[in-house]
User: Fold this.
Amino acid sequence: AQSVAQPEDQVNVAEGNPLTVKCTYSVSGNPYLFWYVQYPNRGLQFLLKYITGDNLVKGSYGFEAEFNKSQTSFHLKKPSALVSDSALYFCAVRDVSDSWGKLQFGAGTQVVVTP
Amino acid sequence: EAGVTQSPTHLIKTRGQQATLRCSPISGHTSVYWYQQALGLGLQFLLWYDEGEERNRGNFPPRFSGRQFPNYSSELNVNALELEDSALYLCASSHGTHNPSYEQYFGPGTRLTVT
Assistant:
């Protein structure tokens, strides 16, 4: 079975400061990992994914994430947060070996960036 | 390129009625996924269709059903509506072909309210 944990319900950060949203995962085999963002009353938008290769993945809107296999983590980062980054962020995992396995989402982390 | 579209945007039904939600995937995508996002419950996987076949199903009762048409659009049917079915229903699409590395692209959702 696969699972995702986002240990923080909410992250508060001042504009211009670094932003980190934490995610840890558990899968039987190797993982495919994804980050999505959801703005109020909207669907989810894809930010980035880790498939294989370089552990540092760069995505949309200046976000990046670092895959750490030993710690089973895939934390989302942004060097300098903007007020417009305030949204709900979801981490998701899929087992590489499970072709028809569902994408498992975490519970989400609300990011609040204050001016 | 047009994104995933869903209709209607809002749907109000009374308990015991049936609801039908529709989704059109991105052109070229063969997989369609349905999720329920209820307040406080996060993103719950409902159904996955690919090439007209149901590939995976979440832990929902049989009154949640759907289908995928030859043009890859999909509809979700919810019978015998209950108050707890009130939620945002999100549709997503991706390339299929058994490749779990493909990211999903989400539509804006249908807000279902059961009174």
